[in-house]
Amino acid sequence: MIGPETFKTFTLDLSRQSVLRVLDCAFRSVEAGAAVKRYLEHHPLPHSTRVKTFGLGKAACVMVQAAAGDIYSLETLVITKRACPLSVDPVTLIEGNHPVPGEGSLQAGEAALKFASGLGPEDLLLCLISGGGSALMAAPHITLADLQALTSTLLACGARIDEINILRRHLDQLKGGGLIRRSNGARILGLLLSDVVDDSIESIASGPTAPDPATIADAVGILKKYNLQEKTPARIMSSLQETIKPGDPLLERVQNIVIASNEIALLAAQDQSRREGFHKLILQKGIQGEARDVGLDLALAFRGYLDTLKRPFCLMAGGETTVTIKGNGKGGRNQELALAAVDVLAGLKDVLMISLATDGEDGPTDAAGAVVSGETAQRAESLGNYAADHLSRNDAFHFFDALDDLIRTGPTGTNVNDLVLFFAF
């Protein structure tokens, strides 16, 4: 979790532990295991119920382990990104691939299909689902090579994760409510960690236990939006299949509950900032779009508030942006968002910006995000580095790494999108 050791270098006085306490409170509010335990303590499962457990996503191990203290599961399947020891027996644990599905994802999909085929009307399937599950588990109607190529193309052109998931749902046997179809009449309880804007349950891990309001026409529309329809092979287009829709009778035995989300984290940060003496304000929920555009807009809004709000104050935003890759640099959406704010904040006194991924993984890097202050631009320029130059190459990682201003938390055990916080002291 976030703590004082997280920031090796801080461009403001580290005696301001209030910033770390705000971050820590936000993360604790959405800790995956605690969220599962809270729900099961307030909504215990009937002792006579035959329970089988399915964990899917980056936080699957933590969620399954937490549930084990409150229920006895006859059988457990866990599909995650990084396996960890579990005191659960019997259990099958599989590592899938992320962010692009791979052979491990196919193995996970096959295991999930087999697991579901063993269910019956007398069973309750407890599904513990978190972000990343869409790539980690794949049972596609197309080849793995085609799925990988399509995913990589969509990521590179800046498609939003919810748009990518619409296509994934219509190309997979388990997504878009597919797990419901395969469960042979079992009751299903889904406890979800939301890593999507607006907590749309059909987008969390591509909704294996959720109805899908999107259609094949919507999936095709996304390809058109990014000028990919003509470039997409006909074999992929013909493999698009319809998903379970709202109102389907199969949904009568399914219940999905969001137990942790970006909004919960934002509200916790807001409450803690008030206790720390900040004049708090949630600037924006559900941020989406190009990371550099969002970073610039948020920084300009923050700078404007400096003339109207009494210090100290804290502005907060949450959501998930995208990066359209045009250069050959290295980075993630939070690092690029922060880099876009560097020149706007340059020269300002006693200000701080933090942008980070709550799962601790920002793009293909070992960082969760980055820190920016009014001194960042000057410090970088003294090393011969300029924010605009690095931004043009999508090279936020090396810009902040040279300053030791990357945030490295390691995997946090949760995943509820990104947090962006501005502090004026």
Mean pLDDT: 93
Given the structure, what is the number of helices? 16
User: How would the global form be characterised?
Assistant: globular
Distance between the termini: 24 Å
State Rg.
Answer: 22 Å
CATH topology of the largest domain: Rossmann fold
In order across it, which strands form the biggest sheet? 3-2-1-4-5-6
Question: Structural class from helices and strands?
Answer: alpha/beta
The CATH superfamily of the largest domain bears the name: Glycerate kinase, MOFRL-like N-terminal domain
Helix content: 25-40%
Major sheet: size, sense and barrel closure?
A: 6 strands, parallel
SSE order: HHEHEEHEHHHHEHHEHEHEHEEHHHEE
The CATH class name of the largest domain reads: Alpha Beta
**Strand residues, percent:** 15-25%
Which runs of at least 5 residues are low in confidence (pLDDT < 50)?
Answer: 7-12
Précis, in short:
The chain is an alpha/beta fold and 425 residues long. The protein is built from 16 helices and twelve strands. The strands form two sheets. Strands 3-2-1-4-5-6 form a six-stranded parallel beta sheet, with helices on both faces. Strands 7-8-12-9-10-11 form a six-stranded mixed beta sheet, sandwiched between helices.
Question: Which helices and strands, and how do they pair?
Answer:
Layout: H1 17-29, H2 32-42, E1 50-56, H3 60-68, E2 75-80, E3 91-95, H4 103-117, E4 123-129, H5 133-136, H6 144-156, H7 161-169, H8 178-182, E5 187-193, H9 216-225, H10 234-237, E6 254-260, H11 262-275, E7 279-287, H12 291-305, E8 313-319, H13 333-345, E9 351-357, E10 369-373, H14 376-381, H15 387-392, H16 396-403, E11 406-407, E12 418-424
Helix pairs in contact: 1-11, 2-3, 7-9, 12-13, 13-16
